[in-house]
Amino acid sequence: xxxxxxxxxxxxxxxxxxxxxxxxxxxxxxxxxxxxxxxxxxxxxxxxxxxxxxxxxxxxxxxxxxxxxxxxxxxxxxxxxxxxxxxxxxxxxxxxxxxxxxxxxxxxxxxxxxxxxxxxxxxxxxxxxxxxxxxxxxxxxxxxxxxxxxxxxxxxxxxxxxxxxxxxxxxxxxxxxxxxxxxxxxxxxxxxxxxxxxxxxxxxxxxxxxxxxxxxxxxxxxxxxxxxxxxxxxxxxxxxxxxxxxxxxxxxxxxxxxxxxxxxxxxxxxxxxxxxxxxxxxxxxxxxxxxxxxxxxxxxxxxxxxxxxxxxxxxxxxxxxxxxxxxxxxxxxxxxxxxxxxxxxxxxxxxxxxxxxxxxxxxxxxxxxxxxxxxxxxxxxxxxxxxxxxxxxxxxxxxxxxxxxxxxxxxxxxxxxxxxxxxxxx
Length: 426
Ligand code: CMC
Fold this sequence. Notes:
Largest sheet: 3 strands, antiparallel
CATH architecture of the largest domain: Orthogonal Bundle
Number of domains: 3
Shape: globular
Number of helices: 18
Structural class: mainly alpha
CATH class of the largest domain: Mainly Alpha
Number of strands: 6
Helix content: 40-55%
Bound molecules: carboxymethyl coenzyme *A
Order of helices and strands: EEEHEEEHHHHHHHHHHHHHHHHH
Strand order of the largest sheet: 1-2-3
């Protein structure tokens, strides 16, 4: 096996080291390229660029594999709790019983939110998107919680605080948007139960915690917990590389996730399916528009930068969607529309030739609707799930002894130098 690749340029040669990952994927280390040759590389969208070495998540887009710290996501979705998954991602291994208990106690102890933060919520204009609110609130947390040092114990507290409080803040924002009383977290409930209770319990009608809903939420969050160097995770790493505090780095991840090509796709899918349900467009018309190069529309919930086969998360989500609706005796017309769209798309040569399959967002909105989550909160649900991954990636990058501030270069294509012209002469 070659340990070097030879680059030939202008009659000269440069040996570039080859780095091989633990699953055999290969990279050419170009860190000396500019210094030695004067060249940089150009890779818009970074489709061929590895930004870091990472031991957190492994994906194989051709085979449809996703593993957290080596464990297949299918096994975690089947057997683990979200708390265990978060611990695994952040600490690199599964917790033992004592460690899990200690982690649960810390999450409970930190789940309340400073009452002064409530005033912030009330000053956002009505109709503000919950993702904009969440991103601002997470950034604001830095002002409410004392600066902690970099000792391991202090960092663990900051990370646990985020995991505990973001869940409470998300439920608070929903309650405030409806003009309802805030429901506080309860120490006797699990992470997922607590969230549902904070969202839906009211003094008039106590929330009945249903096993199916809790299990669906647990699975949803585990499936979203990490996805290696995607757009929002890269935002967390890039912003974190300037050595900002964890809250600021996570807030930038939330903002990136909001986009409809990324986490915002779950909301966009439901909007697309609802439009078909309203009769304003048929499934066939939607497919035709997605294929039309003169139309910017894309089939939402389809396609992925890495997966060139069925997204393994989408497979679990689709199965769970069927089981959940059946067990809760829910008939959602959007599920039939989604199935019809999938059938049309997966038989169509455009989608086959472009390797476009359903991604995690295609069926996830139908699952969230079934457990009562309003559409504008879908991407917030994704953000709560992705939080352990962002934290793990931030921790890995800040612990890296070879860590550098992120600072890509560019190829300048603008004007050559010319003199300033005074305004009267222009
Ligand atoms: N509908 C129609 N055409 C598509 C779609 C789609 N959903 N996705 C990609 N294509 C076409 C695209 O037009 C291009 O065609 P051509 O080569 O003929 O010009 C080709 O496929 C490659 O597209 P790309 O934009 O270069 O691919 P990418 O890897 O940069 O983009 C993506 C990945 C997810 C942004 C894209 O597939 C997309 O926009 N999907 C819809 C939005 C969506 O569902 N996003 C959620 C992603 S999963 C959740 C997450 O982790 O973010």
